Amino acid sequence: MTVNSESHAIESILHESRLFPPTPEFAAAAHVSGEAELDRLRAEAEADPEAFWADKAAHLHWFKPWDRVLDWNPPFAKWFDGGKINVSYNCLDRHLGSWRRNKAAIIWEGEPGDTRTLTYQQLHREVCLFANVLKKFDVKVGDRVAIYMPMTPEIAIAMLACARIGATHSVIFGGFSAEALRDRINDAGCKLVVTADGAWRRGTEVKLKAAVDDALTQTPSVTTCIVVNRTGSQIHMQPGRDHWWHEMMETVNDDCPASELDSEHPLFILYTSGTTGKPKGILHTTGGYLTQAALTTKWVFDMKDEDVYWCTADVGWVTGHSYVVYGPLANGATVLMYEGAPNFPEPDRFWQIIDKYKVTIFYTAPTAIRAFIRWGERWVLKHDLRSLRLLGTVGEPINPEAWMWYHQVIGKGRCPIVDTWWQTETGGIMISPLPGATPTKPGTATKPLPGIDIDIQTRDGRSVGVNEGGYLVIKRPWPGMLRTIWGDDERFRKQYWDEIEGVYFAGDGARRDELGYHWIMGRVDDVINVSGHRLGTAEIESALVSHEAVAEAAVVGRPDEMKGSAIVAFVSLEGSRTGNDELKAALREHVAKEIGALAKPDDIRFSDALPKTRSGKIMRRLLREIAASGVVMGDVSTLEDFSVLEKLRTDEE
Ligand code: WTA
Fold first, then answer.
1. Is pLDDT at 7 greater than 90 in this prediction?
2. How far is CA 123 from the centre of its chain?
3. Could you state, in order of their start, the residue ranges of all structural domains in the chain?
4. Quick one: how far is CA 398 from the chain centroid?
5. CA gap 228, 174 in Å, rounded
6. Which of 272, 311, 318, 422 to mutate to test the pocket of ligand 1 (most atoms within 8 A of CB)?
7. Residue 506 C-alpha to ligand 1 middle, in angstroms?
8. Distance between CA 162 and CA 170 in Å, rounded?
9. Of 418, 441, 421, nearest to 431 (Cα)?
10. Contact 128, 164 (CB under 8 A)
11. Measured between alpha carbons, how far is 392 from 307 in angstroms, rounded to an integer?
12. Ligand 1 centroid to residue 508 C-alpha, Å
């Protein structure tokens, strides 16, 4: 793919003609069976989108029905306004009146091999207890709670407990640093933090509580910290502020009816990277979000009561929110959860887990698939994967070669693959095959789901033709959509709604082929997708510049076979400082400390100056070209100082 930011033309060079229709057996048993039925659902949704979504929302439990399906005051939407609902009730209590009360809700395996299973009844009890712990510390409706935890059942319990009493949770991925945690806690003004002593990752302990201690020195809003005992390592407990989870759970009873909350009550904030240095707190609310999470879980994963479903995403990302916790539990599904790394103790851990628990649905990221390919088929072949019936991917475009490997080596040619396109902002899956209906093609997420109105447009809002590249936009509000950026309605409007008039701008380039299938071509803004994690280049730049040796920095992505994108940083130094390997290492560590290890530059290049326009804007396009191929092909007429380019090029040789 090439993106030319001047003409805004996007060209695609990928052509793929292999087509994989669902088998008749899969289609016959699926919730949505055959293309004709899917087309009928699309037409129905198209004819009356509000009636379509109202029908889907009605599958949830409402304490009080809504007055209005959609109140659309662009760009602000209210879904099912006037309705009263509770997410925790829908994920738990609703199943207790049926045989599902003794069905496994969460089957968990820790990295060291310890296991736990919680039935719906047991999970409900834990959630009620923890909700009462939150209340004991004066957490009230609308208060924000930060969750910085390992992948243990307690992370789901903490989220569901917040949802139960109407506290808004903000889960911060355990790989973020103390500084990143502090900023996110302060942005949302969290009152309480839930964490653990540590997490297990590749056999070593990730020290979560130590990072929390660091962060909490500068978070005036936090009064309480609840700590799960996971690793048993020595930690500091600050009297009056810090309390052990297991001790607090013994001080409360398990009677905690779910609060009847407004449909638009804020369910969670989840921070994601944008084009400026400051992370965006994406706000999701209750009724609409759950409607879409629940429906897409049922349709896209063809979720059945017999399934053992495993989404490998960390709960710290949106995929974990919607497709580890809320969507599956709302469907009464059995969710497998695993704490650790895919290659611990050996590169067959995932296949061993699938075999051991007879996983039927497996949802992971292309970056993981590429790692499995590199580790080799022999690790897969050691295990019996016959239980699998459906595979999924998310997070970045999957290259057709990786798709074929997934299909053949993991799915043994039997399992449909759902390539699901969506974003933190969309709340739920937007473009995806339905496994019993859509003939799939390696590399494409195929078509929008019923009720989702997607187009590919030019900057000036013209729909592009077949196989012509453009910007992916969403034309109609959808129930799971973000409601705003926490505390910043103006940024919400500017970022997503002012770019192209009248539509939501997703920040991705795409094209549509002759079948109407959507090919996502990656980000077109200053966000890079590293191993399926979105990172804002501006955020990494400001981390670099905060180091005393750095005068200026520009960060770009370089296509990388394994990670999707690698991070390349161009750095100019203060005064007479000179760059060397030692400083490179120090800068990498500095970024890890400021943001987290996931943001460490793969490549740092020192330069006296960075290429700028006459108005002083860094020309990232040129840097992208230099990072990718070492040469600049595009137009350089706006460049202020040509010698800079010359230097960057020679530096590289
Ligand atoms: C990318 C993750 C191609 C895309 C759920 C999007 C994808 C960003 C796909 C959102 C896919 C996600 N094919 N690209 N199936 N899924 N993306 O917010 O660039 O972490 O804008 O949400 O990931 O990343 P986020």
1. no
2. 24
3. 527-652
4. 16
5. 14
6. 422
7. 10
8. 10
9. 421
10. yes
11. 14
12. 9
Q: What is the pTM of this model?
A: 0.92
pLDDT of residue 4: 39
pLDDT tens across 312-349, in order? 999 999 999 999 999 999 999 999 999 999 999 999 99
Alpha helix positions (H), 232-391 = 245-249, 287-300, 318-320, 327-330, 349-357, 366-375, 377-381
Name the CATH topology of 527-652.
GMP Synthetase; Chain A, domain 3 (3.30.300)
Token digits of residue 476: 């109609």
The two structure tokens encoding residue 249: 């759970």
Nearest alpha carbon, ligand 1 atom 1: 396
264, 287 Cβ separation under 8 angstroms: yes
End-to-end CA distance of the chain: 25
Residue 239 one-letter amino acid:
P
pLDDT digits (tens, 9 = 90+) for 14-45: 567 789 999 999 999 999 999 999 999 999 99
How many Å apart are CA 165 and CA 176, to the nearest integer?
27
Closest CA relative to residue 295, chosen from 520, 437, 452? 452
Residues contacting ligand 1 via CB (< 6 Å): 272, 317-319, 394-397, 419-424, 445, 506-508, 520, 523, 529, 534
Q: At what angle do helices 287-300 and 49-57 cross, to 10 degrees?
A: 90
- What are 187's two structure tokens? 């942005």
* Euclidean distance between CA atoms 499 and 490, whole angstroms: 13
The distance of Cα 473 from the centroid of its chain, to the nearest Å, equals 19
